[in-house]
Amino acid sequence: MRIGIDLGGTKIEVIALSDQGEELFRKRIPTPRGSYTDTLQAIKRLVDDAELATQQTGTVGIGIPGTISPFSQKVKNANSVWLNGQPLDKDLEQLLQRPVRIANDANCMTVSEATDGAGKGKNIVLALILGTGCGSGIVINGKPHNGANGLGGEWGHNPLPWQDEEEQAVAKATPCYCGKQGCIEQFVSGTGLCDDYQRRSGTRLKGDEIVKLAEQGNKLAEQSLQAYERRLAKSLASYTNILDPDVIIFAGGVCNIERLYKNVPPLLQQYIFGKECFTEIKKAQHGDSSGVRGAAWLWGVDEKS
Questions:
Q1: How far apart are CA 101 and CA 77, in angstroms?
Q2: d(CA 227, CA 200)
Q3: pLDDT at position 303, please?
Q4: Rounded to whole angstroms, what are the CA distances from 256 to 161, 219, 251?
Q5: How far apart are CA 106 and CA 101, in angstroms?
Q6: pLDDT attached to residue 77
Q7: pLDDT at position 274, please?
Q8: E-strand spans in the chain?
Q9: How do residues 7-43 score in pLDDT, each as one tens digit?
Q10: Quick check: 269 and 303 in contact, CB under 8 A?
Q11: What's 285's DSSP letter?
Q12: Confidence band (pLDDT; 50, 70, 90) for 222?
């Protein structure tokens, strides 16, 4: 049995999977925000609950909104700031009395989709989380690619490539929270789509509301969506020029905008080196369950439970 934990800023979720990926148990509780000690204990209780309910002992994998530094061996870059600077894996191994595997939550989502989701059977899987922010995960031959500095997949805080005058003006006027200008996250996150429509119309709407307006013939909504698709294609082209994945998977709220799967691929070919790109772009099969499932799959099916 494989136990996965999705450690988020507002909730902690546990799932128990059989070797075949069958869901055996699932539970979600609020995250004890601000307390590292309470977070450790909450994770232990969830693991205990899963094993009590299934009457089995499982391996434990955990997805976190950050990464374990390969240098300090402590959490860094977590927006759940009480985790930063803590030896989370070591503390949990002592508490749970077993080895624990920890990966970035975007990588966990990608592991899930590569194992038994939209990327099953592919060697190099790239998955993008397009939501409030934007991030990505890379899985190569079934393993998450963390990188030598723990920065594998930190796509959103590179600059938007091939910026036009409008994009340059936006980048200059609104620096990213990371301190840089023109980050991809500012343009291709769901927030970025809503920001663009607000700049054009003066009104703040949600992404699905913008899509609905465009379907009704609203010119400003259509302009925002076309700009979003173009910016996403440019960002994907620069990524693909380096990684050249076998499949690209969209997750997060934006992945439900169905027109992206028709409109982005031909735009991508305009920006890709050599003008040829036939990489399939797919929607995440497991939706918002991919993160917790991927944490469980950090222990592969070929490894002993």
A1: 18
A2: 11
A3: 54
A4: 25, 21, 8
A5: 15
A6: 84
A7: 95
A8: 2-7, 11-17, 23-30, 59-64, 67-68, 75-76, 100-104, 124-130, 134-140, 143-144, 247-251, 280-283
A9: 988 889 999 999 888 999 999 999 999 999 999 999 9
A10: no
A11: S
A12: very high
